[in-house]
Amino acid sequence: MVAQLMPLLPPPTNADYRGSRISIAVLGLAVATTIIPACIHIFLPDGGSNLIAGMGLDLGSEHGRRIVGLFAWAGTTQLVWGAMLALILLRHRALIPMALSLLTVERMLHAWHMWGPKGGSHHPPEAYATLAIIPIFALSALLSLQTDKRIK
pTM (2 decimals)? Predict the structure, then answer.
């Protein structure tokens, strides 16, 4: 089975990565903080809407069930994105600069939607975490481009 899947994956590129080890660790953190919330959104009965985000949804209403369904949909997308990040971390570290750059853009767009005109007045915990993680992802993306051996 594994041998049949190998044509899906190009040869590993970890040996080609010359950036900072800090960037590797930050990508590892991104993998965890992508896959764990994905599983929460997919597997918790309320998708985390009440339990974590404190939205106070009526889960017995059609509206509440629809929003929980959207949480599960978002979680499914997060899970696939997290799996791709894990693959980069484990096999294709040469793609770390691209992954961290995309994570930075993704988090900036999330912040815009959470705090901008569509965000409303309620801010779940992730809204604050997103603001904190943007500069960390951006700096890590820059460090991943460094080739100076002293930063390792």
Answer: 0.85
